[in-house]
Amino acid sequence: MRYVGLIALVTVMAAGVTAAQEGGTPRPAALDYMFYKAHVEPLFLVKRPGRMACVGCHERGAGGLKFQPLLSGAWTEDASRKNFAAVSAWVAPGKPATSRLLQHPLDPKDGGDPFHAGGKHWSAQDPEYRTLASWVKGEIGPLTRTATRVIQTNSAGDSAHVIDPATQKVIGEIHDVPIAHGVVGAPDGSKLYITDEARHTLDVVDARSLSVVARVPLSGRPNNVYTSKDGGKVYVGIREAPGAVDVIDTRTLTRVKTVPVAGEVHNVYVTPDGKYAVAGSIAGKSISIVDTATDQLVRTFNLSAGIRPMAFDTNADGSTNRVFAQLSDFHGFVAVDFATGKEVARIEHPAIPGVHAHRDGLQGAPAHGLVVTPDGTQLWSTSKVYGYAYVHALPGLAEVGRVFVGQHPEWLTFTPDGRYAYVAAAGDNLTFVIDAKTLKEVARIPVGQVPKRIATAVLQVY
What we know:
Blueprint: H1 2-14, H2 33-40, H3 54-58, H4 77-88, H5 100-103, H6 127-137, E1 146-154, E2 159-164, E3 169-175, E4 180-185, E5 191-196, E6 201-206, E7 212-217, E8 222-227, E9 233-238, E10 244-249, E11 254-260, E12 265-270, E13 276-281, E14 286-291, E15 296-302, E16 307-314, E17 320-327, E18 332-337, E19 343-348, E20 367-372, E21 378-383, E22 388-393, E23 399-404, E24 409-414, E25 420-425, E26 430-435, E27 440-446, E28 451-460
């Protein structure tokens, strides 16, 4: 085929066989197709705020760079290889600063060309630009540096904010995920997975570029999401009747199974030992347990009200001891024995003297944020009624503290060392940062519209 010959030509060009390299000067490595397909080509589909996606102009050949037509919003393997050949012709291997592909959309302040008809997309420090530069320079292996990031989704917006706990500042934003719901990081730090309620997809975010590189169609409207312990699968709760958990293969990025469960799923988790996916249903008032080895439903617990956020504590051998669950129209949480499915404790959050109780806009969830601290010694529960987090000691569940965390607080997460708690204050459009030891506020970080789900991930970073 014609494009095979073109790829061969590009590969020879990329090998850098020139007279200027005589005398022992290292030759740039050939441009890598697999890295291009996984990390570079998806950037041409990214819709950046205030800008068109690259494909909008280059699908019709603007400026001499022509992409192949999309098929159902994606490129076939054949089309990707043709695109690779076309794009490679605009690259000087090993030399980002002289590669037209990188310089043309780069801000002139960072050495970019004076004008690009498609607009300026990047600064030299933009993670997308750095991903392109890595490809050109042959830096295609896994990133060796990792860092903790807190990911705040915005339920009334189309983005998620990336917070650096070292500075308590937003250091990046993931765009074009409308009605972002749940978020979880891949265990190897290479990706983030965000449920996209508008498109009914699982959006896959590349840790290098912080851009959506794939969208996996789901069986219905998703809510929360979790990964298997080895990272090979993602479990997605489907919030449509009759209720299901979708299973996504992270290698192929395809939905490989839909597990029917008892009622539409609001939240899904994987137990700390990795053996079970646990799905809670508001309408079904039920907790469904799925064996992660077989992806089969093995049992179901029925409780007194709809299941909201959940958390878990463990036995000495690491197996699951109790499920903690917040319930519809209950200002507190219950503890359920994992082995029997029986409620063993019910804790109602007391009123806070002198604090006005908010009853409007609770959406049936007066308490809607629940997490066990990384060291397993405390359970934190947020109250949308009072704007506080109530702190309970484990295993006894005695209340040991309270801290204000904003108006209509939703989910919360901790840094891996347990030093800081991050709380999504949906009524303030802020993420509150709390020192977990002193229960003192550390920072209020502006984010997007109506932040709700929040998660901690250790990501590969530049």
